[in-house]
Specification:
mainly alpha; Arc Repressor Mutant, subunit A; 2 domains; 6 helices; elongated
């Protein structure tokens, strides 16, 4: 299953929520993303069918190995881009919003080059 930008966003959200919560449920995703319960339920169903998420008998969401890989990749891109934009003098809120848009479309080649370049600045 090929993920679209929205699927990556859901996986990234579940991933980041698991960093601060012992158990993540769909309602947590709703609250974090500001989406309706039916929208989140549909998305989680698609991610579950695609093998990216599992839901236990208590409604707790977990990322599969495949889901975690996508989430970690997306999160890494987001944090790197946001950090770069802030270093360039962009307001943090704008840097965050712009990173969120770009993280889904930037190529692996460009991300690798950006990482190498940022390493030279340290």
């Amino acid at each position: 299953m090929q993920l679209q930008e929205s699927g990556e966003m859901y996986l990234e959200t579940i991933y980041t929520l698991t960093q601060t919560k012992a158990a993540v449920r769909s309602i947590d995703v709703c609250e974090h993303m500001g989406f309706s319960k039916p929208s989140v339920s549909r998305a989680i169903g698609l991610l579950k069918a695609g093998g990216f998420v599992v839901v236990d008998e208590n409604g707790h969401l977990s990322l599969t190995e495949q889901g975690r890989a996508v989430a970690e990749r997306t999160y890494e891109r987001h944090t790197l881009l946001k950090s770069l934009f802030i270093r360039l003098g962009v307001d943090e809120a704008i840097a965050d919003a712009d990173a969120c848009k770009i993280e889904h479309h930037i190529s692996d080649e460009t991300m690798t080059a950006l990482k190498k370049y940022l390493e030279t600045l340290k």
